[in-house]
Amino acid sequence: MSGIYIHIPFCKQACHYCDFHFSTSLKKKDEMVLALAKEIAMRKEEFKNDVVETIYFGGGTPSVLAIEDLRLLIEEVFKNYNIVENPEITVEANPDDLDNETIRQLANSSINRLSIGIQSFFEDDLKLMNRAHNADEAKNCLEEATKHFDNISLDLIYGIPGMSNEKWIQNIETALSFGIPHISSYALTVEPKTALHSFIQKGIIPAPEDEVAQEHFEILVEKLEEAGFIHYELSNFGKENYFSKNNSSYWLGKKYIGIGPSAHSYDGEKRGWNVSNNILYIKSIQEGKLPLETETLSKTDRYNEYVMTGLRTIWGISLDRIQTEFGQSYLDYLNQQAAKYIEDHLLFVDDNILRTTRKGKFLSDGIASDLFMLNLG
C-alpha cells in the first residue's frame, strides 16, 4: 500500500513561525493546478505495481483552492493509479476558508477527512502567530464541519510564549468539546529566517522555553489519554480507528509520491524532492520534465530513519528487524547506545521491541539522534 501527497504552495498570509514552501500570490494558481495534474499523470509508472490507499492535500493551504480544482486533481489520481476501494482523502484547511457552503461542497465530494489548522482558540495567540483566522472562526468552522464529517483532525500548538498551563488546558478542553477523533499537536519551534525568529532576535517576543513546552506536552498526553485517545506518534493522538493513514504510512516506511513544488517522495530505497520554486516547477512540468532530484539511501541512512520514526511511534523499533535488515553489528551498536536510556527509564524493551517510556516520549528525537549510526556503510 502506498500514498500520494499533493503540495498546494499557496497561503493567504505567512504565519510567523512557518518555514514551509508557499507563495501568498495566487496569480499562478490555475497554471499550478494544471501542472500538478500533469505531474500526477507523468509519474504513474512509479506506482504501476502499487495500490494507493491515501491521497493527502497539504501545503501551504489547500483550502485556498476551489472545490473544482481539488476534484480535478483527485480525478487525475483515480485515472492514473490503482486505488483501494475506500481511500483516505484528506484536505488540510484553515478555519477562515471553511464557511458553511465550502464545508458542504467538500462533504459532497470524495474527500472524507479534514485536517484543520486551529493552533489556538485564543485571539492573542493567533495574532502572535499571524494566523489568518480568529477564535470565533475556529469554533464556528468546527461546529459546522462536525455536522458533515466524521473524520476530522485539528492542530494545536503549545509552548507559545506567555501561555499558562491553565490557558493550555482550556485549549485542549475546547478541542475535546467538539468530539474530534484526532488531534495533532506541536511545540512552537523557532525556524531560521522566519518572522518569529526575527522578533525574538529583536526582543519583541520572548523565546519559547523548553521547560514550558515539556510541561504542556505532559498535560496534553494526560488529558487526551483520559479522553480515550491513543498517543500513537509523538505529535499525534487518535481515537481507535482514527489514526491518520497518510501520516502512519510515512512512519511505517511505506512508499509515497510527492506531487508539487518542494514535495518529497520515497520508494523504499530512494528519496526524491521537487524544486522549491513555483515558477521553475510550472515551467519544468510544462516542458514535460520532472523537476525532481533524488538520492539513494545507504544502509546507514535507512537504519537511522527507521530508528527516528520507530522511536516516535507506538510501534517502536523491532530488534528482530534491525538484525535481519541491517545485521548484527547494527543491533550490537543499538543495544550499546540504548543501554543508558533503559537504565534512566527513558527506553524499555518489550517482546523484542524498543520503545520510549512515558517519561522518554518528549525526548524521543534527541534520544534517536544518539542511537544513529555514523560510521558504518
Summarize the model shown.
The protein has 377 residues and is of the alpha/beta class. The protein has 15 helices and 15 strands.
Description:
This protein has helices at 29-42, 67-80, 100-107, 123-129, 135-148, 165-177, 195-201, 210-226, 245-251, 278-286, 299-312, 319-326, 328-343, 358-361, 364-371, and strands at 2-8, 51-59, 82-93, 113-119, 152-158, 182-187, 230-233, 236-238, 255-259, 264-266, 270-274, 292-296, 317-318, 347-350, 353-356. The chain has 377 residues and is of the alpha/beta class. Helix 1 (29-42) packs parallel to helix 2, helix 3 (100-107) runs parallel beside helix 5 (135-148) and helix 11 packs antiparallel against helix 15. The two termini are 29 Å apart. The mean pLDDT is 93.
Top keywords for this entry?
377 residues, 9-stranded mixed β-sheet, 3-stranded antiparallel β-sheet, 15 helices, globular
**Shape, per Cα inertia axes:** globular
| Straight-line distance between termini | 29 Å
Listing every helix as H and every strand as E from the N terminus to the C terminus, the arrangement reads EHEHEHEHHEHEHHEEHEEEHEHEHHEEHH
The largest pleated sheet is described as: 9 strands, mixed
What is the number of E strands?
A: 15
Number of helices: 15
What is the share of helical residues?
Answer: 40-55%
Strands ordered across the widest β-sheet: 7-8-6-5-4-3-2-1-9
Low-confidence stretches: none
**What is the radius of gyration computed over CA atoms, rounded to a whole number of angstroms?**
21 Å
Summed over residues and divided by their number, the pLDDT gives a mean of: 93
Strand content: 15-25%
Global structural class: alpha/beta
